[in-house]
Each structure stands twice: as structure tokens, then as C-alpha cells.
Amino acid sequence: MNAYTHKVQYYETDMMGITHHANYIHWMEEARIDFMDQLGFPYAKMESDGILSPVRSVSCVYKHPCSFGNEISILVRPEGFTGALLTIGYEMRNQNGELVCEARSEHVFVNREGRIVRLRKEQPEFCRAIEAQFPPKE
Amino acid sequence: MNAYTHKVQYYETDMMGITHHANYIHWMEEARIDFMDQLGFPYAKMESDGILSPVRSVSCVYKHPCSFGNEISILVRPEGFTGALLTIGYEMRNQNGELVCEARSEHVFVNREGRIVRLRKEQPEFCRAIEAQFPPKE
Amino acid sequence: MNAYTHKVQYYETDMMGITHHANYIHWMEEARIDFMDQLGFPYAKMESDGILSPVRSVSCVYKHPCSFGNEISILVRPEGFTGALLTIGYEMRNQNGELVCEARSEHVFVNREGRIVRLRKEQPEFCRAIEAQFPPKE
Amino acid sequence: MNAYTHKVQYYETDMMGITHHANYIHWMEEARIDFMDQLGFPYAKMESDGILSPVRSVSCVYKHPCSFGNEISILVRPEGFTGALLTIGYEMRNQNGELVCEARSEHVFVNREGRIVRLRKEQPEFCRAIEAQFPPKE
After folding, report:
1. Residue D138 pLDDT more than 70?
2. Res. A136: pLDDT tops 70
3. Is the CB of residue D100 less than 8 Å from the CB of residue D63?
4. What are phi and psi of C127, to 5 degrees?
């Protein structure tokens, strides 16, 4: 999988002169959606199949500030999948290779009524594609 | 009607040290929704009645910068209503009374299928309440 | 200390019909800044004294969705302070008292040149005020 | 000059299921900064030369909604330049060529102290480069 690149926008900076920390959560989403596209399971397709994927948790550790114009390369790595909960890790580096942020998110999968979807049954190809990205942990 | 107050947040500033100009569009929405609440026609109620109100246009003229911690008082004034198109004006002042921004937005009213709603027929009380806020221009 | 209240804005929702998860990071900042105001150490004052407080990490566990118009009450609790690193916890509840999100952030304190500030020496009153909010853990 | 492309992000949608209207102001900035890069006068370079360019006004007319995953092509056209005030027009089209939004912004140029910069004197090459993009209107 290719890393996703986000160019820091002026509107993402704050009066400290650096990227405001909330924007990294946006970048995680951008990179995750790009990852799903590369995997062959676009998120828009999933939603049109009636499966939503609310975020269960996020965490970010900010290692090095970045600012306007920096090109941030984001590596997305699935780290765990129970069939109900998907854990994804993110490594963000600036154009000099310096680690900017390490992050993680957890995702559940529900239908339009908000009920948990049994992904192994309803989307077996997606499950196999995700699991091909890491050694299964079950 | 009471003016709406927005306190400028840190995350709304940019590296120029002032409020990023895109945030004023958010504040217009905050003030407009508060105005609708005061008018007795909460926007959430309208949506649950099946009426959506997409924004047709916005414009802002920035008169004076503001920044973190400033309390911005926003006066909302309906300026025109044709039954199909509602025009709203906004006057934003800082805690010293200085004019910070003058803005305007236009709104249409559609149903869930995206068709124009005939508001005078379907929401006559709302039309009367809006028009009581200014001399009709038809 | 009083809880901080944030009313969910329309622009904070996403196409899933709920608050987009990145906004909670903004609310943590709003509540934290309000907490500092209540404590008697406004963040703007700290910055004008030459002390910046970059965020070292954030984490959120989303417990229950919320959406447009909901009033979210946010309780801020300092959880640890080493003199160099301040840890803050957040409990967010909707108007029915349901837990919406549990969150945590870590903060460091630096001067304009980016060097760590020795807070116990330079801001002893602030340290005492923070520590009065919880049993010291050193 | 090449058009700038923005892919609509999930976090840019709202509960109406479409792009929230405030985001177009961000896209104008993205496209304008890309235009300056293409012109050979990167905005970051201008700021490091001590010239800031606050936005004087913005306006958007929303022609057609767009949503998550859409690729929006943004054409940037300088429309006027008095030496003190730069006017820029934007035409945004979706992947099918449909007009999504027409917008305009005005910009002034100031130094770090907030005083108007005489651009024709201090940045004559930039003025010539901008004016080469349209017939001068003075």
C-alpha cells in the first residue's frame, strides 16, 4: 500500500504558528479512506451497501510540530480485527522523514438502524483483504 | 431579538494570529440557528417536518480582525423573503463595539427529495414570523 | 469548578447524521480553556507571559453519538502534573446525562523559543492552583 | 495555469448529506495558494519576506451540491489588482463538469505591523506576474 500525502493548509494552522492538533484526526480519516480505496473497498461503496463505520476511539501522540506547506506522509496499518472491531495505526512523517505523529483509531460496523453488522458473514472479501494486511490476532 | 454571542476559540485562529476568515461562515450559521430558536421555529423542528434549507450564497466583508478570547456579538436581520428565497444580514461586533464583519446569506427551502417547498402554503406561520421582522419587499 | 456546555452545531455534523468525531477535540480545548479561566489563569494571559502549551497527546473513546442541537456538558479534571507534563481528563454527557465521550489530553509548557519552561519556578501559583484540584501524584 | 483539484472529505459533509457550505472557503484558499505556487510566488515565501495577505472579503454562490468522494476542479482567475487590493475569482466544477460553486475573494497586503504594503514598489515582479494573468483594469 502507498502512503497517503497531506499538504498542510494555512487554515489548519493556529496562532501558535503550527498545525492545530485537531486536524490530525482529519488526516487520519483522509489516509484511512485512501487506504480503503487502495484495498478495493471504497468507503462510499460500503455506505451504499448499507454499512456505516462509526469511530469507536482515536488517539494521537504528537511527536514534532508541522506547519503550513509541509507535506505529511501518512502510513496506514491495520493492527487488529475481531470481526466486529477494526484497529488501525497511523505513522505520520514530514518531508524530512521526521516522525510528526503516531495515532490509532478503532472502528465498528453498523447498519442504517445502528445494529452491529456481522462482517465475516456479510463482507467476507473485505475481511480477508484487511486480514491479508497483517497476521490475524484471533 | 437578542444578538448571539460567539467567543473566539483557539482552534479558530491561524498563524497570522487572528481568526481564520472561514470561521465567520460558521458563526453566521450559529447566529441564524439561534435566531430561528428565538423566532419559535427551531431548525431541527423544520428538518423533522421534512424541510431542509440549503444555503444558496454567502458573502462576508471583513472590517477588523478579531482573535482568541474575543466575544463577538452577532446581530441577525432578515432582509428579504420572496416565499422561495430568504436573505439574511449579519452584523458582527467585538466587545468594544467595533464592527468586525458584515455578512449576508441566502437560503432556499426544499423537501427531502430536493424539490422547492412552497413555504407560504406549507409553513404560513413561519412566513408571517419572518416577515414580522422586516417590511415585506414583494 | 462548573462543567462547560457546548451546543452541537449543524456544521459539526457529518453525513452519518451525527457529530463528526474530530469535533470532540475542539470541545476538549473549549472546556480546558474555560477551566483555566475559572481557575484564574486564563490561557491568553499565559501566552502573553510568554508561555505556550502545546498538546502532547489526545485520546477519545466515543460512547454514544450526539448530534445537532444536543447540549453536551463537559467536566474537566486534572489527573496528573509532573511540573512538566499536565494530564487532563474529560467526561462529556448529553442533556439526558448519558455518557457521550471520555477523553484525555497531555500538555507541555514551552517558551516562545520552544524550550521547556520550569513551571514550578516560573508559575508557582498556577502549579498550586492546578494541584489543589487533585491529590498530588509525585 | 492548471486547475486545482480537491477531493471532498467525509469530515466536510454535514447531516444534509452534502458538503457543508463553509468548506468552500477552505477550498478557495487551497486553490489560491496552489495558484501562487504555480505563479512562482509561494505564499510561505511572501510571509517570510514579511508580507501578510489578509482576506478583505469572500463570496460564494452555490450552484449544485457535492458530497463525499467528489473531485472538485477549481479554476483560479485574478480579476483585478489595484496595487493594494487583489480580486480573485474561482470556478468550481465536479468530475462531470457541472458548475458547483462560483466564488470571489479580495485580498490586501500588509506588513507584520499591519500597515499596507506598497506592492508595486516592494514586489514589482509579483505585480507583473499577477497582471500577466489578466488585462490591467486601472
Report:
1. no
2. no
3. yes
4. -60, -45
Q: Provide the sign of the torsion angle of the four alpha carbons C42, C131, C2, B26, taken in this order.
A: positive
Enter the pTM of the model. 0.96
**Distance from the Cα of residue B112 to its chain's centroid:** 21
**Domains of chain A (ranges, CATH numbers):** 4-131 (3.10.129.10)
- Top residue of C11, C70, C95 to mutate, by most chain B CBs within 10 Å, is C11
Q: Are A22 and B11 in contact (CB under 8 A)?
A: yes
Could you tell me which chain C residue has the CA closest to the CA of D14? C14
Would an 8 Å CB–CB cutoff place A26 in contact with chain D? Answer: yes
Neighbours of chain D (3+ CB pairs under 8 A): A, B, C
Amino acid at B109: F
**Contact of B84 with B73, CB cutoff 8 Å:** no
Contact D15 C17 (CB under 8 A): yes
* Angle between the N-to-C axes of helices D124-131 and D23-39, in degrees from 0 to 180, rounded to the nearest 10: 110
* Any D CB within 8 A of B2 CB: no
Tell me the sheet residues that pair with A76: A90
Min Cα distance D30 → chain A (Å) is 7
Chain segment A82-111, per-residue pLDDT in tens: 988 999 999 999 999 999 999 999 999 999
**Three-point CA angle C41, C44, C49, nearest 5°:** 80
Measured between CA atoms, the residue of chain B closest to residue D52 is B16
d(CA B103, CA D59): 9
- Per-residue exposure over A117-129, b if at least 16 CB sit within 10 Å of its own CB, e if not: bebeeebeebbee
pLDDT mean over C114-121:
92
Q: Look at residue A91 in the predicted model and tell me its pLDDT.
A: 98
Tell me how far apart the alpha carbons of residues A40 and D114 are, in angstroms, rounded to a whole number: 51
Q: Which are the catalytic amino acids of D?
A: 14
pLDDT of C135 higher than 80:
no
